[in-house]
Design a protein that fits this description.
By secondary structure, this protein is of the alpha+beta class. It has 4 helices and 19 strands. It has 2 domains: 173 residues, no CATH class; 117 residues, Cyclophilin, CATH 2.40.100. A hairpin with a 6-residue loop joins strand 16 and strand 17. This is KipI antagonist.
């Protein structure tokens, strides 16, 4: 069913799900939502499977017109969403009617990415196991491109009609919190002296304008190598922290390549990647080293929370 017409696309709006997690061995970038927690919650609130595709909005949002009635939810950063000129609450499911128009402003506060999930899910072809848009490869989503004016987005069927499903405040991420980006040591951590690792953990880094879905370039205290920055290229993933020759860290993000030839001092843990993904140029971040066992426990805790939210949402919808 044709559901949305794109009046204005915004700065960069793409269709993303959880990405192509099982195809990196073939050289295929994972892509997917930058802030996967917000995407998953948006889907849960409208009765979808949490891995369903949604619209990822970045910094400046689109202008959408609804061609039919349905249920949507917006999560992530507050980018000034308005339905027919009236403020739209985040982290809750709402009803839209045929002819309604959804507009966004700019990400002037904390965070820079919002997610629009639609009951029934977005009906685009599955390409290499995912609906996600890979802008670099040119496939997925709407023909491998960011949304453009006059695009029509279709959705699948849904029996979900409940509105007002809300994610409790205590479970909502605080993107303005000055929290560390926790990481585990990377495969080349021994290429750095202990003093350099300590410097990395006690310094603050600014996110540069050159940052994008492929990686965040940071500026701050330069980290020195024992020998040099280059290695035989090996596997990298979202969250990998590379230290190139200039000593300025690069954190790889959703659209990163599959191999890289710079030393990796660490990997940001999965639980903290949504917070990192919401940083915009000019924001300042810092890092904290933890052990892999703690990272695993934090991951399990997050997944238990999501399971609880799913169950509560289903019960509230009956």
């Amino acid at each position: 069913m044709e559901f949305i017409e794109i009046i204005k696309p915004g700065l960069m709006s793409t269709i993303q799900d959880l990405g192509r997690a099982n195809y990196q061995k073939y050289g295929i970038s994972a892509s997917g939502a930058m802030d996967k927690f917000s995407l998953r919650i948006a889907n849960i609130l409208v009765g979808n499977d949490d891995e369903e595709a949604a619209i990822e909005v970045t910094l400046m949002g689109p202008h959408l017109k609804f061609l039919e009635g349905g249920i949507i939810a917006i999560t992530g950063a507050d980018i000034g969403a308005k339905l027919n000129g009236k403020h739209v609450p985040l982290w809750t499911s709402i009803k839209v009617e045929k002819g309604d128009e959804l507009t966004f402003g700019f990400a002037t506060g904390y965070g820079c990415r919002a997610y629009i999930a639609i009951a029934g899910g977005i009906d685009v072809p599955i390409v290499i196991g995912s609906k996600s848009t890979s802008l670099r490869a040119g496939f997925g989503g709407m023909d491998g491109k960011a949304l453009q004016s006059k695009d029509i987005i279709s959705i699948g069927n849904s029996m979900y009609t409940s509105i007002g499903r809300i994610l409790p405040t205590e479970y909502r991420p605080n993107f303005g919190e000055d929290r560390p980006m926790r990481f585990i040591l990377g495969p080349q951590a021994d290429e750095f002296k202990a003093s350099e690792l300590e410097k990395f953990c006690t310094s603050r880094y600014k996110v540069l304008n050159e940052s994008d879905r492929m990686g965040f370039r940071l500026e701050g205290a330069a980290i020195s190598h024992k020998v040099g920055p280059d290695i035989i290229s090996d596997y990298i993933t979202m969250g990998s922290i590379q230290i190139p020759g200039n000593g300025q860290p690069i954190v790889l993000m959703a659209d990163c390549q599959m191999t890289g030839g710079y030393t990796k001092i660490g990997v940001v843990i999965d639980v903290d990647l949504p917070y990192l993904a919401q940083k915009k140029p000019g924001d300042v971040i810092h890092f904290e080293k933890i052990e892999i066992e703690e990272a695993q426990e934090l991951y399990k805790k997050r997944e238990r929370l999501l399971s609880l939210i799913k169950v509560n949402n289903k019960m509230a919808s009956k």
